[in-house]
Amino acid sequence: MARVGRIKLGSQGLEVSAQGLGCMGMSAFYGAPKPEPDMIALIHHAVQSGVTFLDTSDIYGPHTNEILLGKALKGGVREKVELATKFGIISADGKREIRGDPAYVRAACEASLKRLEVDCIDLYYQHRIDTRLPIEVTIGELKKLVEEGKIKYIGLSEASASTIRRAHAVHPITAVQLEWSLWARDVEEEIVPTCRELGIGIVAYSPLGRGFLSSGTKLIENLPQDDSRKYMPRFQPENLEHNKTIFERVNEMAARKGCTPSKLALAWVHHQGNDVCPIPGTTKIENFNQNIGALSIKLTPEEMAELESYAVADAVKGGRYGSEKAANTYENSDTPPLSSWKAA
């Protein structure tokens, strides 16, 4: 198997594997946590294959995914990887709160460093934007953490174009993480061009549509009750019936090309440019091997156009998240002006 190549992520000096590994599903949200020895073996297999860009967050578990990564990074593995984690979402009593205040930013970073058992995080993202305070305030604290050597690079996740601009003016943003796949393309209008203009790398999460572009409606039939996808609008019966035609068309084209639909859908994301790093998550070594196989699939402009015609913006029914979370996505993540900030 060919080793995975490297790309520059953003213009601040971070270099990562051309494809990353999303670690969330190992511990949270997609059913019960998976057995720890199996997940450590998978992470080690990924690193040996050249996938060294590992993505986690303090909310995955919460906390258990970072602890898992901490264990997997022992024995010299830490030196081989680019480690990304996130802060900003707190889950308490079934309620979610988004925080970006300086004291919280610092406390969250210290806690992640302990759980990961590292002295520096390579890429530290604000997971969701705290719209109660100016983005400049949050980035100001992250900048201090860079100066102190606790983090190397700063990232944002699910931020609007204007928030990205304002953040970047305080301290260069290395990467913006966003949902980008054949069936989640709303970022192409404003957010992707803004990142490119500013020299910010793009990290595409859920590049396989949370598994839908790998297995279509079969995915939903086999999900356990405690899998968060069961409750997402796109996977509800009234929307799924409509959305399944997208998968069927991708599947037909994959058959013509002699590859799996997941490889084809992932190759489409890779073809968006060498400033884009998709981070498909998986808990199985065979699926991981499939995913890195996408790197060797070549798509012509005609094939790209054909794939895109299956999933034009209005072809997908249902939002990316349910209403409770919709408030935390980038559609309305602008923060108040800095002049409004009164330090507590």
UniProtKB/TrEMBL annotation:
Give residue spans, biased composition: Polar residues. 329-338
Any Pfam family matching the protein: Aldo_ket_red
What CDD domains would the database entry show? AKR_AKR13D1 (cd19145)
The GO molecular function terms of this record are: oxidoreductase activity
- Record has Oxidoreductase as a keyword: yes
Ranges for domain NADP-dependent oxidoreductase:
23-309
Identify the stretch(es) annotated as Disordered. Answer: 322-344
This protein's UniProt keywords: NADP, Oxidoreductase
Q: Name one GO cellular component term.
A: cytoplasm
Q: Does the keyword Oxidoreductase apply?
A: yes
Question: Which InterPro entries does the entry mention?
Answer: Aldo-Keto_reductase, NAD(P)_OxRdtase_dom_sf, NADP_OxRdtase_dom
State the name under which the record lists this protein.
NADP-dependent oxidoreductase domain-containing protein
What is the originating organism of this protein? Acacia crassicarpa
What taxonomic lineage is listed for the species of origin? Eukaryota, Viridiplantae, Streptophyta, Embryophyta, Tracheophyta
